[in-house]
Amino acid sequence: MPISTDSRDASALGTVLLTGESGDGANRGGTRNTRVTAPCLPWEGCGKALACAALALLLLDAPLARATWSIVATDPETAEVGIAGASCIGDVEVIGGLVPGHGVIAAQGLTNGAARERGQELLAAGESPQRVIAEITSDAFDPDPWWSFTSGAQVRQYGVVALGFESAPASYTGRRTLSWAGSEQGAGVSVQGNLLAAPEVVVAALARFEQSRGDCRSTLHDRLIEALEAGAKAGGDRRCEPALAALSAFLEVAGPDDPPGASSLRLVVTPPFEPDRGIPTLLRQLFRPERAAEYENPVKKLRAMFDEWRREHEPVGRCSDENKVEGAP
User: What is the architecture, at CATH level 2, of domain 18-313?
Assistant: First the structure.
């Protein structure tokens, strides 16, 4: 269940995207930040779709984009932090920034590498997720000049969690990220995504994470990959067919004693070949999503890789002796 909800809608024709999320809303811990889509233009059909895509291209620099869904989470019992994510482009793993023993940040949308690194610095210093979001979305840190459509916080999306701040996860979704975009939070977990097939992607991911949390045999690794799978089953990235959901996926978990940049688990799946990341490719993906017949489902492949890793790394369970399942370690 989300910690709380705070969804504010607007309604006006002629806007490309309507947002129920503002900068100040993103700074309140434990809130659900949800964006909604308004009719792009006051007519329907192909003309509307073409106009929406053309307007979207003014807002999106395709080579820099990391449109995706991701889950960032902590485990206060083991002091582990982790992230899982997937996207209908390659190299989705660049969105993650883990700080062992402290927290994790996902920086997506038009990914700002400097913001991801600054977020890691702040987490290492013991700052709260809200404080991280406040700084990296500020005009001083990420200016938005009038002549640029690819700068500023309004084209970014972030999710941040930290050990010791389980009741106050934070996320931010800029109003110029592409629909569907939004987030859901629970205790010590934030799920966020943009260019998604539907809101159910983040809803299903969070629900599965929370359900897995109730199983004493479940580790943070299990909860993250199960949440990613739930998001894929709900449709994933809308630039891929639902049966495919994404082209790349990753899972990373760091223990409190892991050196920075050397997480105890890091699994990455990339496509054997990838479409060019230019504007023509984005247009084609919006009108003809990537097909399952042309690629291997990366989330399913990630699961196979994880299962193989798991056979060699028995988890430390939370089950008491009297509740332990027969055959479990």
Answer: 4-Layer Sandwich (3.60)
